[in-house]
Write a structure and sequence with these properties.
alpha+beta; 5-stranded antiparallel beta sheet; 4 helices; 30% strand
């Protein structure tokens, strides 16, 4: 049976002590999407959104969010991130914006939460910037797709693409 590491013997929340762990290179990749009407995709592509460049704002918001993850998720460790990239691209065929965040560090704990937070906040930014013209948008399929480094090794949950 797996031990719940964020609970102490009394069942109370605690931050995990990672002091004895080795520092290793760690990377996590998360993805998600914002589905919208085809007209909204076209407006974003044309650069004709009232609040400005939707994809640029989403990229910056995702990067900023990754750096602030321990302020948002109560038991996350503050980490020195060595790389954060957020890709936001239009997918006309799916009538969506596809999001992918890659986060790296050299440390004692992984960066899965930072990658997931980056994608989540990028998606929320897109929603905020487009909600006045598209009330039917849906944020969907936010998930970890890959992680590497650390004692538990590599995990691939989804192929590249």
């Amino acid at each position: 049976m797996n031990e719940l590491t964020h609970l102490n013997e009394s069942g109370h929340a605690r931050m995990v002590d990672v002091g004895a762990k080795d520092e290793t290179r760690r990377e996590a990749v998360a993805r998600g999407e914002v589905r919208m009407r085809p007209e909204t995709v076209q407006q974003i592509a044309a650069g004709d959104m009232p609040k400005g460049d939707v994809l640029a704002a989403a990229r910056i918001a995702g990067i900023m969010a990754a750096k602030r993850t321990p302020d948002l998720i109560p038991l996350c460790h503050p980490l020195v991130l060595t790389h954060v990239a957020v890709d936001a691209r239009l997918d006309v065929a799916r009538s969506s914006v596809q999001l992918e965040a890659t986060v790296r560090t050299v440390g004692k704990t992984g960066v899965e939460m930072e990658a997931l937070t980056a994608v989540s906040v990028a998606a929320l930014t897109i929603y905020d910037m487009c909600k006045a013209i598209d009330r039917e948008m849906r944020i969907e399929h936010i998930r970890l797709v890959r992680k590497s480094g650390g004692r538990s090794g590599d995990l691939v949950l989804e192929d590249e693409g």
